[in-house]
């Protein structure tokens, strides 16, 4: 049950890219990095997905959405949920990070900067509304397990920050 | 069936299930919106971890067992969680202290479980530890904030600590099944974590300006299925839907 790197069949890529994350609809599951492999074996597409967080309620929906998208394209598929290697925010693609920001969710900083923000209250998370870095954490947990709640002290906008997960 | 491994997995998973259930009770009842969301988010992480463990346990059990049967249809004495996690929420000081005393243990435990020779358990541990490090940070912060807060908050968190301390030693108790699984390099020898645990706990308590309880009398029994009086009430709530409408699904 390991998949050290992503292995996606090129024919399947355009289909999978159209499946969006149910919690963050602007983001495709490919940009999120939750699809670890998708290969065609004996006319069946075998897809391995990995959860962002153990309790992520979106995983069942993602599995169903993938099967539907593949079925619409004429493929029968099997979905397997794998835990190792564990998902990390590093797997969110540059395009995915841009989509997050445009949607109003600050993309994860690197591990060290993330710690400085969450542990020492350093003001470096950029406000998704006005781009100011004069922001502070108001709650370690946000609207979903993967996010923390922030507020901008310049424009007062409250926004989500996607926590760094390594 | 591998009886000892099955029991060993339940021993780990039941802690997360029962603590998750306790935290879930706070959904909509937390002291403020942020802590309400935090407690339910932690609960969700724990339930996610539980599902991975129970799916694995169901596979080992065979006989068409499912993760839901294991979660919802056992009798009280078949749950193998430690007594600490079943203690009631009482007030926010109790909720946070219970969380803190468990999180420090949970992190140390998963650190070791990552090295298990059982690939499934190692994978679950690697996934879970990222979440648990965040839980530990949250509960430690609150210990400091309440301990080093007002006279009232300090008194109440100290009271909670004094009351729950008696359940800490059980975390390092081993059942016969545990010992066998440890000898097979699958399980974690929790006795080796004890000293480190108390050192870490005492460091945070000292930052929180709290007194380490002096009591040397410790309760145990949960790991052998003998629970405190609170467990039956918790289970009646947890199991209500499956007992009332057998085999119901969402």
The radius of gyration computed from the alpha-carbon positions of chain A, rounded to a whole number of angstroms, is 17 Å
Strand content of chain B: under 5%
Radius of gyration of chain B: 18 Å
Shape of chain A: elongated
For the biggest β-sheet of chain A, the strand order reads 1-2-3-4
Runs of chain B with pLDDT <50, length 5+?
Answer: none
Report the order of strands and helices of chain B.
HHHHHHHHHH
Q: Based on helices, strands and strand pairing, what is the structural class of chain A?
A: alpha/beta
Please give the largest β-sheet of chain B. none
Q: Mean pLDDT of chain B, nearest integer? A: 96
Q: Tell me the overall shape of chain B.
A: globular
The H/E string of chain A reads: EHHEEHEHEHEEE
Give the total of beta strands of chain A: 8
The greatest interface between two protein chains, and residues involved on each side, is: A-B, 26 and 28 residues
Q: How would you state the average pLDDT of chain A, rounded?
A: 90
Please count the helical segments of chain A: 5
Proportion in β-strands of chain A? 15-25%
Explain what the structure shows:
The complex is a heterodimer of chains A (166) and B (250). Chain A is α/β, with parallel strands linked by helices and 166 residues long. Chain A contains five helices and eight strands; from the N terminus they run E-H-H-E-E-H-E-H-E-H-E-E-E. Chain A has a four-stranded mixed β-sheet with strand order 1-2-3-4. In chain A, strands 5-8-7-6 form a four-stranded mixed β-sheet. The longest helix of chain A is centred in the middle third of the chain and has 15 residues, at 58-72. The model of chain A has no long low-confidence stretch (mean pLDDT 90). The longest helix of chain B is centred in the first third of the chain and has 29 residues, at 33-61. In chain B, helix 1 packs antiparallel against helix 2 (33-61). In chain B, 65% of the residues lie in helices and 0% in strands. The interface between A and B is medium-sized, with 26 and 28 residues.
